[in-house]
Amino acid sequence: MRRVSTRALVVTGVLVALLLAGAVSYYASTSPDGLNRVARDQGFSQTQARHHADGSPFAGYGTKGVGNRRLSKGVAGVVGSLVVLALAGGVTLLVRRRGPQQESRDEREPVEHGGR
Amino acid sequence: MHVPDGFLDAPTSVATGAVAVVAVGVALRGARRELDDKTAPLAGLVATFVFATQMLNFPVGAGTSGHLLGGALAAVLVGPSTALLCMTVVFVVQALLFADGGITALGTNIDLMGLVTVVVGYLVFRGLQTLLPKRLSLVAPAAAVGALVSVPVAALCFTGLYAVGGQADIPLGTLATAMVGWHALIGVGEALITGLAVGSIVAVRPDLVHGARRVLERRTLEVRTSDGVAT
């Protein structure tokens, strides 16, 4: 297959993610997930405590103040995706090995230490 | 499988929190080896994709659903250390912004859905890679098998934690059977999504896929050898 640029791949991927979180998520199953199902069947779901973040404007993947359920979940999904992208993108950019420019700057440090 | 507050007692939650802090610390160091200017942008995409896909609960029958956990997917695409960082970002955002997964259970969730699925998924993937022929077409199927195994193992680990610090008295055999049973089904969905996502990226940019590196290295070596023979 034809080689695509990293930028095109990442932009396409993020758009797919936004589509999934912003639109497709409305059609997701609302049945209890595996753990909640087991907790209910085995009778320990009642120990679940009230969530400390229940007051969040996006608690439960809805948007506070938006009446339309489709829009409410869609906005929450898009906001969440963008927050995750910003945080994860930021962390990995900070952690990564830098390109040649920054590397030469890094190399100066050990020289300074050595000259002590 | 987001564990809410109140399922596990405080000492267990503190312990899982400590494990998570150490694991993320190790991952921060390890990720430096995995990430460079070329592969770093993919990590942000992987975290975003995992978050988005975790909103898509699929039915697994009898009024029960499951969603992708994503540890195996992330580990194969960006490497296990970076994967744990991506998963951690997802769980922190889910707990704080969406009230999904308890705040005192954040360490538990990072350990079960992040650390366990990343480590198990990646080990199974690497194991298969050493056994199978080194072909690009086998990267996605191997990732899918890693994903398939990772979910019931995470469910079993939850049972182990519940045995230590569960807030209710539940017969462990029954709990283990129920957890592993449902999550084996969810693992099938996990395998399909992982195979599809890894396969798509391998098809267009195999050089960006962490789990395809060894296959590509070997291919480069082969080309050089045949060149040498030709001249």
Unreliable runs of chain B, pLDDT <50, ≥5 residues?
none
Note the gap between the termini of chain B.
58 Å
Tell me the overall shape of chain A: extended
Secondary structure: number of strands of chain B:
2
The rounded distance between the terminal residues' Cα atoms of chain A is 55 Å
Order of helices and strands of chain A: HHHH
Gyration radius of chain A, rounded = 22 Å
Please identify the structural class of chain A as seen in this structure. Answer: mainly alpha
**Rg of chain B (C-alpha, Å):** 19 Å
Q: Biggest interface pair, residues each?
A: A-B, 64 and 75 residues
Number of helices of chain B: 8
Order of helices and strands of chain B, N to C?
A: HHEEHHHHHH
Number of strands of chain A: 0
Description:
The complex is a heterodimer of chains A (116) and B (231). Chain A is mostly helical and 116 residues long. Helices cover 59% and strands 0% of the residues of chain A. Chain A has four helices and no strands. Chain A has helices spanning 6-22, 34-42, 69-95, 100-114. The relative contact order of chain A is 0.10. Chain B is mainly alpha-helical and 231 residues long. In chain B, 59% of the residues are buried. Chain B has eight helices and two strands. Chain B has a two-stranded antiparallel ribbon. The interface between A and B is large, with 64 and 75 residues.
Brief summary:
By secondary structure, chain A is an all-alpha fold. Chain A is built from four helices and no strands.
What is the strand and helix layout of this fold?
The complex is a heterodimer of chains A (116) and B (231).
Chain A (H helix, E strand, L loop, with lengths): L5 H17 L11 H9 L26 H27 L4 H15 L2
Chain B lengths: L9 H25 L5 H15 L3 E4 L2 E3 L4 H8 L1 H19 L7 H26 L7 H27 L6 H33 L8 H18 L1
Antiparallel strand pairs in B: 1-2
Helix pairs in contact in B: 1-4, 1-5, 2-3, 2-4, 3-4, 3-5, 3-6, 3-7, 4-5, 5-6, 6-7
